[in-house]
Amino acid sequence: MGNVLRMSTKFEPHELDLVRGLLDYNPDTGVFIWKVARAYVIKPGDIAGTDLGGYTRITVAGRLILAHRLAWFYVTGEWPEKDIDHVNGKLSDNRLCNLRLCTHSQNMANKKVQENNKASLKGVSWDKKTKKWRAQISKDGKKHHLGFFTDSKEAHGVYIEAAKRLHGEFARAA
User: Fold this and answer.
1) Are 170 and 103 in contact (CB under 8 A)?
2) 134 with 151: CB under 8 angstroms?
3) Same domain, 160 and 110
4) How far is the CA of 116 from the CAs of 119, 120, 121, 154, 171, in angstroms?
5) Can you tell me the distance from the alpha carbon of 79 to that of 88, in angstroms, rounded to the nearest whole number?
6) Please, which residues bridge with residue 148 across strands?
7) Domain end call among 81, 115, 144
8) First to last CA, the chain
């Protein structure tokens, strides 16, 4: 059937030498550099990876890998069983100091406000029925209604307090 590129979920610990033989990772910059030539277009010293919705992805040993997960593996020698969160919210910033293990819920708590949010405020949406701003927050997949407000900024303030209480260091206001 030929070579089929597959999105792998993980590398095994015994594959660490393979990865380190192909790539260098700089934990201060978050950049991977190829050590070997590949596919006639990649030369040693070239930056590895392409953009995938803001994330950097790298094809290693026929597997398409997200660079933040590969960075964690490269440094620790263990494939992350949990999510890896980008502390500053920049998905292409794969510096080691910007990466932390987390649950899926914590990762979602640190997510930036969605571009289609009419209020441009995280945790705030317009409720057509009440003609008020609704504040709500999610934790572990469960939505928590925080109230209705005439002012979107007031609703956002309530959201921020709830985020600090429920999400701690993973709380993101914007």
Assistant:
1) no
2) no
3) yes
4) 9, 8, 10, 20, 20
5) 22
6) 134
7) 81
8) 47
Last residue of a domain, one of 81, 116, 146: 81
Domain-located, residue 87: no
Half-sphere exposure of 100 (CA within 13 A, CB side): 13
**pLDDT tens per residue across span 1-38:** 344 444 456 899 999 999 999 999 999 999 999 999 98
Judge whether 156 and 123 are in contact, CB under 8 Å: yes
Nearest to 98 by CA among 114, 123, 75: 75
pLDDT range class, residue 141, cuts 50, 70, 90: confident
Structure tokens at 7: 């999105």
Rg (the chain; Cα; Å):
20
Q: Is 98 domain-assigned? A: no
Give the global pTM: 0.82
Q: Do 139 and 172 meet the contact criterion of CB atoms below 8 Å apart?
A: no
Range of the domain at 34: 6-81
Which string of b and e fits 60-88 if b means at least 16 CB within 10 Å?
A: beebebbbbbbbbbbeeeebbeebbbbbe
